[in-house]
Amino acid sequence: MIRKLTVLLVISFVCAAAALPHVAEARIRINLTDANAEPLPIALVPFDGDTDEERQLGRDMREVINTNLTNSGLFAVVDQKAHLQTLESLRVSGPLYSEWRLINMEALLVGNVQIVGAGNARKVRVEFRLYDIYEEKPIIGKVYTVDMRFWRHVAHLVSDDIYTALTGEGGIFASRIVHIGEEADANGKVVKKLCVMDQDGGNYQCLTDGSHLVLTPRFNPQSQKIIYMSYARGVPRLYLLDLPTGRQEIVGDFEGLNSSPRFAPDGKSIVMTLTAGHEGNPEIYSMDLASRKLTRLTFNAGIDTSPSFSPDGKQIVFNSNRGGKPALYIMDADGNKVRRLTYGDYRAYAPEWSPRGDLIAFVKSSGGTFSISVIDPEGREQRQLTESFMDESPTWSPNGRVILFARQDEKANTMRLYSIDLTGYHLRQIDTPIDASDPAWSPLIR
Amino acid sequence: MRRGIALSVLLHILVVILTDLSFSDFFPVKEQVQTINVSLVMAEAPKKPQPKEKTPPKRTQQSVAPKEPPKEKVKPTPPKPVQEKKVVAQKVVKEKPQPQVEPPKEEKPKTEPKEEPDDRLRPEKLDKSKKKDEIKTKEPDAQLAETPDDFMEALDFIENLEKEQKTAQAIGKPQEDAVVSAEEEAEILLIKRHIERNWYRPSGIKDMDKLMVRYEIQVNRDGTLNSLRMTKSSGRDFFDKSIERAIRKAVPLPIPGDKYDKFKNIEIVFEG
To answer: Is the ipTM here above 0.90?
Structure first.
C-alpha cells in the first residue's frame, strides 16, 4: 500500500513538473541562409628586407600574391595607399589591429625576404604571417627557402596558404597550365606547339617547335608529367614528358588513336580512344603504362570517346552517340554498368570529372553554339556556365573550383584561354602571347 | 484488481489533464486591443495597370539551363500521422512543408545554384514517425504499476514520460515558430541579417546543401554573448568555425529590450 502510494506520489509529481516546460524552454530559432557575398577584404604588406634587392623582391612577390588572390574573385585586396600602419611601425610593434580594423580589413599579410648564399647558389628565405584582424592573432606563419630562381613559386605557395586558411578550400595557385599554342609562321601557316606556363601566365615557354602536329596534352594527377599526342611520322604517337626535367619518352605508336589519352587518378594507367582497324568505330581502351597492355572498355557500334576518370578512379564518364546523338555516359572503370548521364535537347562532348568529384564539366552544343556546362554525377541538375559562339576543352583547377577552357572568338577568329568559377561568376581571359587552345591544368606543385 | 484499474485510470486522466494544459490556460493573457481611428475616403478610379516594359528577357543561368527530366526523384512518403494514445498527444504537430527549390531572384543576374534538396539525406527530425513508434511501444509500462515490482517499472515509465516530453518538445519546434508574432519575426530577421553580414565563406562549397550546423547561444540584455556552444557539427571544421566567427563578430546582437526572456536563448542553424 505504501509502495503504491509512493508510486502515485512520484508519478503525479513528475506529471506536474512535466507540465512546466511549456513555458520555460521556448527558444528563438534562426535559420542562416545567405553569407556575405562580398569578397573578403585583405591587406597585403610588401615583404620587408634589409637590402634594396630584398625589398624589391618583397614588392614583386606581393604583386604575384595580389594578382592571384584578386583573380580568384574571393578576396578584395585593399590598395596599399589605404594602409594606415606604416612599414616602420610594423617592424617595431607588429600589427596594430585597431588601425587595420579602421579600414575594415579581415586579414593582414606580413613577411620578410632574406637572400642567402652567393653567386649561382643564392637562395631566398621567405617568412610570412597571416593575421586575423578581428581575433587579433596570427592564423598561419611559415618559412620557405628555395633557390632564388623560384621566387615566383614561393609567392604562389604563400598565395595558396592564404587561400586555404581563409576559405577552407584546397589550393590552386602553385600549378601549371599546359596547352597548345597556335601561331602563324613566316608563310602564314598555322603551327601548333606544346606550351606551358604558370597558372597566372608567368614563366611561359613552348616545348616543341611546331614542326609536328601536337594534340591533347594531359597531366598525370600524381606528378608534373604530361602525356600528349604527336604525329611525328604520320602515325599518332604518344609521348610522356616530365616537365621539371624535360625528359621525354615514347609510350607507343597507336594506329587509329583518335585523341584524348587521359591518366587514371593513380597515374599508372591511361584511357584513350582507338579506332582499331577491324572494328571501324572508336572505342575506349585502358592501357597499363608499365606493361603497355591494352584492355578494351566499350563494346558498342557507335562512337565512344573522350573518357575521363572520377577522382576515386572507380568510374569513367565518356561521350557516346549510342543513344542517337552525342551524350555523356558513366561506366565503371572496368567498363561495366554503363548508364546515360545527360538527357535534354542538346549534344554533350568532352566531359571532365572535377577533382572534387561533385561535378562533371562538358561542352554543351545546342542551336549551333558551344558552351561550357556542368552536371552532377547523378544527373540531377545541369547548369550552363558560359554562352558563346564556341567554347571548348574544359579543364579543372586542382581544387575543383575553377574551369579553364578555350574560346574561339567568332569575329576576330582568335583562340584564347578563359577561366570561370563553378558558380558561373568571374569569367576572365588568361593572357598568352599567342593564341592558345586545348588547356590542361596540372595538380598542385609542392 | 478493481482498485488497481481505477487507480490506473485516475493516473491516466491526471496525466492527460496536466500534459494538455499549460499555465497560460490558467492565467489567460488578455490581448490589449488598440483602436486606431480610420476615416474612410473615396477611392480613386482604379488606374489601368501599365503594361510591364518589355525588357529583353535576361538570360540568366537558370533560364538558359534546360531542366533535365528528373531522374528517379524518390520523395520519401510523408510520415503518416500515427494514431497515438492520448497520453502522447500534445497539440497536433504541423508537418514542416518539404523545402522547395527557390525560384531565381530577380536582382542577381546569376544566382548561386540551388540544387534540389536531397530528401533522402534530410535529418530525421522531419521523419517523425520513428519517434512516435518509440513512444508507442513504451506505454504498456503504465499498466504494470500495480505489481509488486512496480517501483522500477514506474521509474521507467517516468523516464519515458520525460523523454516523450522532450521529444514532443523537439518535434514541436516548428510549432514554436508559429507562436512568434509578425513583429517578432521582423526582429528575428534583423538578428539573422546581422549575423549573415559578418559571415564570410566561399560560394560553391562541395555538397553545401547537405551540410548541417547548429549552435545554441545565450545572450545578455545588451546583446552580448553569455555563452555559445555547437550542438551539431557539419563535419567540416572550417565551415563550423566560419559560423561561430560570424556569430561572435555580430555581437552585440539587436535583441529587443522588452522581450529579453523570449530572446535570451537562441538557436542558430544552417541547413543546406
So the answer is: no
Residue in A166, A346, A421 nearest the CB of B66: A346
pLDDT class of A125 with cuts at 50, 70, 90:
very high
What are the distances in angstroms from CA A395 to CA A261, B48, B108?
14, 54, 27
Partners of residue B145 in chain A, C-beta under 8 Å: 4, 7, 11
pLDDT at A12: 64
* B195 CB burial (10 A radius; 0-12, 13-18, 19+): buried
pLDDT at B141 over 50: no
Measured distance CA(A378)–CA(B70) in Å, rounded: 10
- Report residue B115 as a C-alpha cell: 540544387
Q: What residues in A contact B203, CB-CB < 8 Å?
A: 35, 37, 421, 423, 425
| pLDDT of A296 higher than 90 | yes
Cα A171 to Cα B188: distance, rounded to the nearest angstrom: 37
CA distance to partner chain A, nearest, from residue B192 (Å): 6
CB A286 within 8 A of CB A274: no
- Closest-CA residue of A relative to B269 is A31
Higher local confidence (pLDDT), B33 or B56: B33
User: What is the C-alpha separation between A226 and A216, in angstroms, rounded?
Assistant: 10
- At position B33, the amino acid (one-letter code) is V
Place of cell 540531377: A380
Residue B162 makes CB contacts below 8 A (sequence gap 6+) with A14, A18
Distance from CA of B199 to the nearest CA of A (A): 5
All three cell numbers of A171, joined, read 589550393
- The pLDDT of A355-380, averaged and rounded, is 95
Contacts of B269 in chain A (CB under 8 A): 29-32
The answer to whether A29 touches B33, Cβ cutoff 8 Å, is: no
Distance from CA of B79 to the nearest CA of A (A): 24
pLDDT of B117 higher than 70: no
> CA–CA distance from A202 to each of A74, A171, A218, A432 (Å)?
21, 18, 20, 9
pLDDT score, position B26:
55
Average of pLDDT values for A290-315? 93
Name the residue among B23, B199, B269 with its Cβ closest to that of A29. B269
Cβ atoms A222, A267 nearer than 8 A: yes
Which chain B residue has the Cα nearest residue A31? Answer: B269
Please write the tens of the pLDDT for every residue from B79-107: 444 443 443 334 443 434 443 333 333 33
Q: Compute the distance between CA of residue A375 and CA of residue A354 in angstroms, rounded to an integer.
A: 10
User: H-helix or E-strand containing A398?
Assistant: none
Res A55: pLDDT: 96
Say if residue B126's pLDDT is above 50. Answer: no
Q: Which residue has the higher pLDDT, A344 or A308?
A: A308
CA distance A95 to A106: 13
| A22, pLDDT greater than 60 | no
Nearest to B64 among A34, A74, A387 (CB): A387
- Min Cα distance B130 → chain A (Å) is 22
What is the rounded CA–CA span in Å between residue B149 and residue B153?
7
The residue type of B32 is Q
Per-residue pLDDT, B207 = 87
Angle at A65 between CA A67 and CA A195, to 5 degrees: 65
Chain B residues with CB under 8 Å of A11 CB are: 11, 15, 145, 154, 157-158
Q: Do A7 and B238 touch (CB under 8 A)?
A: no
